[in-house]
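#structure-requests
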Amino acid sequence: MPDCVFTIKVCVISVCLQVPVEGFIGGSVVLPCSSAEHDLKLQDINVLWRDKGSETVYDIIKGKDSVERQDPRYKNRAETFPEEYERGNFSLKLINLNHTDAGEFNCFITHSSDSKQETVWLFINDSTAEKGNKSTKQENQEPGTQSDWITIVLICVCTIFILLFAVFIACFIIRRIRTQAPYIGGTVAN
């Protein structure tokens, strides 16, 4: 039973730690991805950006940009920041956003001593009118509104409480069954 509870908690926590980013039709966003290690040897690094359908968005192979396998939907719309690679920043800028861009993006970083995956969720809104026509730079500095973060935290907290309640009920039922097991037809079994 404790193994089950641990697994449930890990799953809930990993869902909550995914990064939400908000963008607007026709606008641009920066999808964050970084390595904790700095002063990296670029020749030892591969970074693969993939979308929700596992299509290639952008690749950095041995520290060099590669768009050979890039899905046509991202041609001339995806770019990175090569001057930031040595500092471990492999974020991706996606421009001219459209509704089909919404969803999950994965960044896979591999190098000689470590490998890592980051997941970013991109949400697309229809217009910037709601945000007072912010510039692209302002949009990227505020990847999600405060209400988005509150919603995510509330969902995570509610999910944890529901799971804890379900575990409590299951333990109660199991304990009750065990305490009633010695009795068969109103008599104590030998």
